[in-house]
Design a protein that fits this description.
By secondary structure, the protein is mainly α. The chain has one domain (about 1-90). Helices cover about 75% and strands about 0% of the residues.
Amino acid sequence: MLGTIIGLIIIGIIAGYIARLVVPGHSGLGVGGTLLLGILGSFVGGFLGYFLLGRNSSGEGFVQPSSWIGSIIGAIIVLAIYQATRGRRRA
């Protein structure tokens, strides 16, 4: 259980960091924000994977290429939405 939580935190940090590298613009997120971005991205990626593929692959384990790709794509989507809404508030 503790290993799973630590693994999810590591995946969240890496997915959030990759999303920050891919999405242009200044995100203004620290380590905690990047972690939260990666975790939210994992949820979004998992939901999209379930919606598009129509099945749940969580029984196969969370450290697999499809989980990483889904987490990164989800984090990119979340970061793009965050930057779009943040830009509207300041303008």
